[in-house]
Design a protein that fits this description.
The complex is a heterotrimer of chains A (about 325), B (about 325) and C (about 300).
Chain A (H helix, E strand, L loop, with lengths): L11 E12 L2 E13 L4 E5 L6 H9 L6 E9 L2 E2 L5 H7 L4 E4 L13 H13 L3 H14 L5 H4 L9 H14 L4 E5 L7 H18 L2 E6 L2 H7 L2 E6 L2 E7 H6 L4 H9 L39 H5 L4 E5 L2 E4 L8
Parallel strand pairs in A: 3-8, 3-9, 6-7, 7-8
Antiparallel strand pairs in A: 1-2, 1-4, 4-5, 9-10, 10-12, 11-12
Chain B lengths: L5 E12 L9 E13 L4 E5 L6 H8 L5 E8 L2 E2 L5 H7 L3 E4 L13 H12 L5 H14 L16 H13 L5 E5 L7 H18 L2 E6 L2 H7 L2 E6 L2 E7 H6 L4 H9 L5 H5 L31 H5 L5 E2 L4 E2 L5
Parallel strand pairs in B: 3-8, 3-9, 6-7, 7-8
Antiparallel strand pairs in B: 1-2, 1-4, 4-5, 9-10, 10-12, 11-12
Helix pairs in contact in B: 3-4, 3-5, 4-5, 5-6
Chain C lengths: L5 H5 L9 H11 L1 H19 L37 H37 L1 H15 L3 H12 L3 H12 L1 H15 L2 H8 L4 H38 L10 H10 L6 H27 L6
Helix pairs in contact in C: 2-12, 3-4, 3-12, 4-5, 4-7, 4-8, 4-10, 4-12, 6-7, 7-10, 8-10, 10-11, 10-12, 11-12
Chain lengths: ~325, ~325, ~300
Amino acid sequence: MPSTPTNADPLLRVRDLTVDFRLPGGMMRAVDRVSFDVSPGEIVGIVGESGSGKSQILFSLMGLLARNGVVSGSAVFQGQDLLALAPAALDRVRGVTLSMIFQDPMTSLNPYLRVGDQLAEGLRVHRGMARREAQAAAVAMLDRVRIPDAARRARQYPHEFSGGMRQRVMIAMALLVRPALLLADEPTTALDVTIQAQVLDLISDLAREAGTAVILVTHDLGVVARLCDRVIVLYGGRIMEAGPAEPVFDTPAHPYARGLLAATPRLTDALTPRLGTIPGTPRSGGAMLPGCPFAPRCTVRIAACERVQPAFTPVGPDHAAACHLTGAAP
Amino acid sequence: MTPPLIEVQSLCVGYRVPGTGLLGRPRILPIVHDVSFRLEPGRTLGIVGESGCGKSTLGRALLRLNEPTAGQVLWMGEDMAAMPAETLRRRRAEFQIIFQDPVAALDPRMTLGRIVSRPLATFEPGLKRAELRRRAVEALALVGLSADFADRYPHELSGGQAQRVGIARAIIGRPKLIVCDEPVSALDVSIQAQVVNLLMDLQERLGLALIFISHNLSIVRHISHDVMVMCLGRVMETAPRDAFYAAPRHPYSQALMQAVPEPDPRREKGRLGQALQGELPSVANPPAGCVFASRCPRAEAVCHSARPPLRGDGTRSVACHFA
Amino acid sequence: MTDLTPGTAAEATPERGLSTLQLQFRRFRANRLAMASVFVLLAIVLFCFFGPLAFPFTGEDADFDYISAPIDFTSPHLFGTDDYGRDLLVRVMEGGQVSLTIGFLGAFVAGVIGVLYGAVAGYAGGLTDRVMMRIVEILYGFPYVILVILLGLLFGGGAVALFAAIVFTLWLTPAVIVRAQAQSLARREFVEAARAGGMTRGQILIGHIVPNCMSVVIVYGSLLVPEVILSESFLSFLGIGIREPQASWGNLIQTGTAAMDTDLRLLLLPAGLLAAVLFCLNFIADGLRDAFDPNER
């Protein structure tokens, strides 16, 4: 069931996306019937802790799931179901209208090739550009992502770049082809704070300019607040709450979202003697529980929570939470 | 005024870098320059900075896990460099450390009970096995882990639980100071909060002083009494916590505050596009003049040529020509 | 203030888990080929050490009634005799005793020396490490056979000289392997934690470094045994090392090879057993390596 009311013409429509892994001990469910839409040009943030399955959602959209992963459901992107595409057809989408950037930029940069060549390769392969033209476009893009001395840098190798710069190169690679949708898996987690700010600015800038929609996966609520129009809160493979950024942050309806916000330390606002906490540890592996995955840690759970999976209850315009207690007095 | 627990004077720490060539001499790569501060018993000093600022190196040098190249560390008035090796070894009971990677900090081949009690076996030799176990269980209880954990192994633990074990090991000898080297950076947000709260509870209960090293300004705000900002091995600013967060003086501190994203969409949307430009300076090739000059929005000619000294009025100090 | 023991309520104790060692043991037991090899090896060992008790003669007794007798299960010499009338089966068993003893003992001693040397070098680092490794590199350069001959002359030949020569050359590789392991361990946080906990470097070496090298050592050690046995066989085959009339698989194979054209049986029995032992040890080593795989918990 869609977590948010269907938009008129979504760029990406994900329905009942489920990811299981075949492990020696049995099947492990990482993502459980996740449904959401992404509108053209929209920046959506998927936030969750470890074990929430957030990265697996992106991997399954890109066809990068591990070999023992089993995916079901549908993800309709520009008229095609990404999850059902044959590898050849998926190759025509990946790197052309659908791009991805990762946490560790070294994984997508070939250490043996010059940076400019790697950038140009995408244009030549997917757009059939001539070599000179592609090289020029690559240098222009490096400049656009604020790499100083772009022409010289294009002839350098990845190891000659710092972490933040490599990340920018990766963004350049991903956005050079002006994709309709960019998937970003924790792109700034490994970066220093000031560099993270630069990179977030860059993603926002380029995406808005090219009209690229972005799905950003992160554990950092602050990053979501800075960059995203809409937010999806994930726990234990299921969506707990989803909606536009401001309402979700101002009046979170789900106990997990509330707990997460309370546990996030602030730079401003009054200091409490202790940080708010969520008892217990995030779910890691194992079978899905019959009821709400958050029930074992929930401080306001009722009997039904452990037995019956909560349905999505609207809380505001386009804002819904999967909790039995939504709608009741807070 | 209570005598400080630890007093650091003009401390410099460097790493030995292997020399080049067949007979190349190893040279010293300086990491920490001229750091001075004092810490009273029961107080927390938060040390904040980005990568390459030397905060972890500084933390280890305080415990003599690294040898400083210059300067002094006085532990309860005594110069640590002057302590004979045996004395230093035995006094380690008074100052401990917890690490960033909680699971890697535990020997995978030992049970948790043994891991926690091992330091005690060193500091109080002669304790019988039963007594060691009893104290280990007691320490585990203090960090919120039940007695059964004593027989488990590190690979069975989550990150948060492993960090608690690390804390239990650190407090078993009832130390006066714990250096916390990015203790929550590798943990989930909800677990970070649990561990930070635990440290604060233990500080109150056991009268611990803490040196909390982190790149996360927000967490440092919760746990610290005083804050010290470092960049490329030098102190940029020191201040009491509330004064610092209300009005940071150094441009670098201000840039850090500006850069940290807060979970407040309205405020954050206004911050897009204001990121500080430029790269972090290289540790191997430090700039002349102020280390922040290349990125500072207020930099002028003097900043690039002359390094600003750390000037203060007793409670706050700033290293900037214009602050 | 949060309750100081939130953990007891919120931290569920993990299910009674197994120690690392138990997990590894279990994984090894699941490996059928390795387990089968253990049994076969055990059978061969028992065969060699207890087999001769079943016979009234030793491998050195010449039985003039049966010179060069062929395989004949009805005769007292089941697998026949050699030129001197010595029972082949018993000789092979006695040879096995010698080869296997030198093999396991040699591997053990070479392993212990190598582990300690490597652990000290890896953990100490710096100048100590460089000097120790230069020594190893120099020793690596020594021509093996010449060294054995020299040591043989020094110790007057026989099993002791052989043993010394083999150990002297074979401890080098475990040392290098353990040194690499110790170096990476020395950087791990739990070693730093041990220093912060006041342990001396010696205590850390024995208490933390060496135990964590053990999986590497055991796997490599099990490969060392076939190497030693092969070395011994090779040297005895060359005529250095175990000399007649004492039997070892090496010199048995030597006589067997010389008589290959006429009497294959003299070669097949010791060679077959040697091959079987080597196969078993290799499968066991593979099994151990899989069991200790550091990628798994």
